[in-house]
Structure formats: structure tokens, C-alpha cells
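Hey,

Quick one before I head out. I ran the complex with zinc ion overnight. Inputs first:
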Amino acid sequence: MNKLETAGVAASICLLVAVSAQASDKAAMMGWEHPAVATEKPAPKPAPAHKVMAPEHHAVVPVPQPHSAAAAPKATMKAHHAMMPKNKAHTITGHHSIHWSYRGIGAPQYWGDLKEEYRLCKEGQSQSPIDISAATVTSLPGIQVAYQETALDILNNGHAIQINYAPGSSITVAGKSYALLQFHFHSPSEHTVGGKAHDMVAHLVHKAADGQLAVIGILIDGGAAADNPVISKLWQSFPVNAGDRRQPVGVTVNVADLLPADLNYFNYSGSLTTPPCSEGVNWFLLSAPVQISNAQLEQFRASIFNDARPVQAVNGRTVRLGN
Ligand SMILES: [Zn+2]
């Protein structure tokens, strides 16, 4: 099993747990890794998304590795068990691991303790997101975009709304090509600029032949008078619940239509913003935000509220901005 396949399986496990949590109410769904949720009985039926997940697209990202009780430091496990109703977590997951999330005992400040594979989340020195408060203005190579239309494949992975992309779309920067794998949304924007968060962000996740990841960040704000047409198309198939996946027949989307006209960007070396927080990610945060309507923003937030990792230490890294 190669690395991608392994990650894909992990993602599937992740989804299975998430879907089980759907059996409880909506508030519980948002915090399904919480002990209070763990007391619910598991959903009897298997998760449909578990069967149809495409590992090669889902894998790239910020998906956790397969659960392993042995991976977590003993002290951490003990602490977690002390907070957890006896054996109840096993009802759903069948193992000891705490699932990462954005609140409660799986919240970002604990990610680095949840598993050995996540240690970079607390020990890494080149983590993302960051606050971009100063940038070196310089001449940077343009991003050459070659995105194609793709059949819409949208899912709620329990952490974000993600759109898988068929092979054949890519960017080229300074002669290096990165294939587009998927894009997904966070709210608020994770990266901040001058201390200010934007309402949302789209992360377009790419991978080069040598394995390096490159992420284009599109900052998004509400307040537009009209609906954004790309977001409209996506939200018409909005996967409301964790584990939902929609592939409406005949609907295609091109993420190029979501890009701002100005592709000037902030560039620095960072990490995935979700476990395992792997470093060496080439970040291209576009400096020009795009706008969507408040109704579109609210539709997202009604389902996915606050799936943003807090900003991390810059640790002397240089952020460059094209002139
Ligand atoms: Zn992201």
C-alpha cells in the first residue's frame, strides 16, 4: 500500500466515524469527537461515502493517518481517558484515538499530542497558517493556470467542504508543474493579513511529480450584492452533513472561475493546516480577495462553522509579495 492509499484508507476511517456521529443531533455532529457524543450509539448503517471515496484525490491533504492507540504518548492517552466516559469512545471507533477537530479535546492546541504522526503540529517550526504582517516586495514568477472543467464531486469530510478534481488540471510556477487534486473551504480564512481574518478561504491543493505540495489560497469575503456564480453551482449540491458526498449528473465546475483577476500572491514555505501538519508546502496566498453574497456565506457557516486552525509562529520565515 503506497502512501496515498494509506492516507486514503485513513480518510475513509475518518468518514466512517464522522457518519456514525450523524446519528446524534446537529450540535453533536459538530463536535462528534467529544465524549458526550461518544455516548451515542453508532449508526447502524455503513457510510456510503466510505465505499465510493477516491483515495487518490482525498489523500493529499490534511487527512489523518490510521488510528493507533500505540502512537499516542502514554501520558496523553491517560489524560484523555480520564476525561472520557469509560469505554464509551470504543462504542463508535473501536479504538482509543481521539479524533482531531476544531473544538473540545481534539482541538488544534492538542493535535500534536493526539498521535506520534501529528507531532509536527506542535514541534514544527514552519507551520501554517500564519499572520502576514510584513512581506518582502519583490519580483515573483507568475502562476500559469491550466485548469479544466471537472465533473462536480463535492463532499463534506467532517472538517471541510471539498471538491475533488479529475486529473489533467495544473499550475506551473517558475517552470515547475503541480497537478490540481482538490479544493476545499475554511471559515474563517486561517491565514490573516495584517491581523485581519477574511470570512472564508478556498485552498486549491496541488502536488508536483517530486511530491511537493503547493496550495493556492483564495481569500473570500461576504457582502457582495449578487451571488458568486461558482459558489452558487457548488452550494446547489451542498453536502450538509459529515460524510455526505454529491456527484450530480451533468454538472461541471472550473475552479479557474473562482480566481480573482489579479493573481499576485504572498509566497512562503509552510505546512498543511490540518494533521499531520506536514511541512515543505509551497504557499501561494492570493492578495486580492473575491466576494460572495452574505447568503452564500451563511449557507456554508450553517453547516461548517469555524474550521480554521489558529495562526502559527512565523519563526523568521520570509514572506514574499510580488510587485
Ligand atoms: Zn485547507
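The chain has a mean pLDDT of 78.

Talk tomorrow,
K.
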